[in-house]
Amino acid sequence: MKRVVITGQGAITPLGNTAAEYWENIKAGNVGIAPIAKFDASETGITVAAEVKDFEPTLYMEKKATKRLDLFSQYGVAAAVQAVTDSQLDTEKIDVDRFGVMVSSGIGGMNTIQEQVIKMHDRGPKRVAPFFVPMAISNMAAGNIAMRVGAKGICTCIVTACASGNNAIGEAYRNIKHGYSDVILAGGAEATVCEIGISGFAALTALSEATDPLRASIPFDKERNGFVMGEGGGILVLEELEHALARGAKIYGEVVGYGSTSDAYHMTSPTPDGSGAGKAMQQAMAEAGITPEQVDYINAHGTSTPPNDGAETAAIKYAFGDQAYNIAISSTKSMTGHLLGAAGAVEAMACVGAIQDDFVPPTAGLEETSEDCDLDYVPKVGRAQKVNYALSNSMGFGGHNAVICFKKWEAK
């Protein structure tokens, strides 16, 4: 079996438009949530979101291309270009047939769908844009990234709602581990801060109606009342170890385990006993060959919805037993909001930062935990501590659970 390392990162997020800026803001506990600025949300009942700020797509693609890519694809391409640049990967010196892309999106081109349905309704079906379909379908972040960087290996998009980003990273890890690819760009991209996106999740009563950005996304807090919509893209360069060493690549960390399960329980709610996500954590640890006592940090799914946070707490106890009380846990969604299909990607970067800097990011805004949330969630302020192994949890509507295990890089 091959070892798989991380050699590049790229990010477009509510907390910065590079991986380095994103991580520094996460470490500092800064919150990227603010009043919705993209449209007039007054009739939705929702006030805040975690929007990407000052994004300039022409830094990463020609202006003409921006007219043919939905915003989620633009975020994905931008993050991928950053990641390839960061990795110093020279596509003229590698086998591009073994260079792949696994980049997910939970929903795809929602802005395009909204815009074109309105146009069809108002002006007739003949006015629908010819690029409607290739802009809207969820696989096109992956497809456009492959075209942009010249990756001719596996190119796919795993759609598992809010677990999509983690599933993409996990499947990319396995693909390299088993010898099918040398390098894969893995992660997710999402752009759903629009009228139909906010209205749809609001109708589910899934979104926070808080007006204070600092008290809107408050995972594990007794006053939590819904998640905050986020947007952006995150891409990791996953690479086979010997391939990375041969070209002198910088190594950020290692992927050592992956777990993926189904609750088979409910359309939108997790299993209350936590068994589904708990088993995914156990699978990730088993593949990594570690015990619960070796896990130093868990980046929780932590959406700030009442059902999720209690169920995830139960899942951690299911997987770790009494050791659950000794592990530092935090939800970076308290700062980024929920990036849906891209959440796992940017949260993987938080884990990479944690193991590199030996620093656990905080659950910003957590004032007082609820009765069903009684673990160590690192409230308000991050914590300097040794982090050798970190888990990243993601859970999606439909009962999808995906967990990645990261390890501090050590040359052996």
Q: What do you see in this structure?
A:
It is built from 13 helices and 14 strands. The protein has about 400 residues and is of the alpha/beta class. It folds into 2 domains: about 5-245, Peroxisomal Thiolase, Chain A, domain 1 (3-Layer(aba) Sandwich); about 260-405, Thiolase/Chalcone synthase (Peroxisomal Thiolase, Chain A, domain 1), CATH 3.40.47.10. The chain has a 10-stranded mixed sheet, with helices on both faces. Strands 2-3 form a two-stranded antiparallel sheet. The longest helix has 17 residues, at about 70-85. It is globular, with a radius of gyration of 20 Å. The two termini are about 15 Å apart.
Secondary structure tally, helices: 13
As a whole number of angstroms, the C-alpha radius of gyration is 20 Å
Tally the structural domains. 2
Share in helix: 25-40%
As residue ranges, the low-confidence spans are: none
| Name of the CATH homologous superfamily of the largest domain | Thiolase/Chalcone synthase
CATH architecture of the largest domain: 3-Layer(aba) Sandwich
* Elements, N to C (H/E): EHEEHHEHHHEHEHEHEHEHEHHEEEE
Portion of residues in beta strands equals 15-25%
Span of the ends, CA to CA: 16 Å
Number of strands: 14
Largest beta sheet: strand ordering: 5-4-6-7-1-8-14-13-9-10
Overall outline: globular
As for the CATH topology of the largest domain, it is Peroxisomal Thiolase, Chain A, domain 1
Q: Mean pLDDT across all residues, rounded?
A: 97
CATH level-1 class of the largest domain? Alpha Beta
Reported for the largest beta sheet, the result is: 10 strands, mixed
Structural class: alpha/beta
